[in-house]
Design goal:
Blueprint (H helix, E strand, L loop, with lengths): L26 H14 L12 H8 L3 H13 L3 E4 L2 E5 L5 H13 L2 H25 L4 H20 L4 H18 L3 H13 L1 H14 L5 H14 L3 H20 L16
Antiparallel strand pairs: 1-2
Helix pairs in contact: 1-3, 2-3, 4-5, 4-8, 5-7, 5-8, 5-10, 5-11, 6-7, 6-10, 7-8, 7-9, 10-11
């Protein structure tokens, strides 16, 4: 695929009465646009190699410095995966831009933690609905593979309920398995993006639970209730169980003490 050389300058010349003004599309942004077309075109496939940096720079008539800045932008957008000493490859569809947005939002505004937890609840409730439908339908066999992973996660959580790293790992595994059981890959990726950005809050929730709960294994029981509701094949029952489970999480976040003003913003989620 050919490409016309991009504009040779990022900025208009400085005037006597003011600073330089950026053009609507900088040199780097133009290169990003061109390479993005290569990544999403009809012939593009995940894992496919892009031309080498030297070839791309020559094709677009830009320096290697500009080309590398463009590639950094494309990598941050989740469109390419760069490898040391090798041509970049087209990335598989992913939610990296969403993950970056969530992480930045939570850092800037503590209220965003609650908002994204509400979004997580909406996605997981719908995922539980879909999983219940699939367990009662023709895709039951494939769905049960994920249900088995969720069951193992609950068993591991119950076996060592006082160990925070174990609780965190098994909690994440449980929710990831149920999301996979929904059969909706995009929903799974969105939840993964939320999890990556809000992981610290999950840890805080578990630590607060252990500090107050009479029975540390009670959280494993709560997950079992959700799992059994999905296994009934009744979407309404699965929805009710997941809603109740995540309402507990929302309440815990709502009742957390305000952080000390001298402390960095809270980035956690349950």
């Amino acid at each position: 695929m050919g490409a016309a050389p991009v504009e040779p300058s990022d900025q208009e010349p400085a005037g006597r009465n003011g600073p330089q003004r950026a053009r609507p599309h900088s040199l780097t942004a133009q290169v990003v646009d061109f390479i993005e077309e290569l990544c999403v075109g009809p012939d593009a496939t995940p894992g496919g190699r892009l031309p080498a940096e030297k070839e791309l720079a020559e094709r677009f008539g830009v320096s290697r410095v500009v080309l590398r800045e463009a590639m950094k932008t494309l990598e941050a957008k989740g469109l390419v995966h760069r490898r040391q000493g090798k041509p970049a490859v087209i990335a598989s569809p992913n939610a990296l831009p969403v993950e970056n947005f969530i992480a930045l939002s939570v850092l800037r505004d503590r209220r965003a933690l609650m908002e994204f937890t509400e979004i997580r609840k909406a996605l997981e409730v719908h995922g539980a609905r879909l999983a219940a439908q699939r367990i009662a339908g023709p895709e039951e066999e494939h769905t049960r593979e994920h249900i088995a992973r969720a069951r193992r996660a609950v068993a591991d959580m119950r076996a060592d309920p006082l160990d925070v790293p174990t609780r965190l790992r098994t909690d994440v595994q449980f929710h990831q398995a149920l999301a996979a059981a929904s059969g909706n890959g995009s929903l799974t990726q969105m939840l993964d993006a939320l999890e990556q950005s809000l992981a610290q809050s999950r840890e805080q929730s578990h630590r607060r639970f252990l500090a107050t709960a009479e029975d540390p294994a009670a959280s494993a029981d709560e997950h079992d209730v959700v799992l059994e509701a999905v296994l009934t094949g009744d979407p309404a029952r699965a929805v009710a169980a997941m809603e109740h489970h995540l309402e507990v999480t929302l309440h815990e976040i709502q009742t957390r003490p305000e952080p000390d003003r001298a402390d960095p913003p809270d980035t956690a989620q349950a």
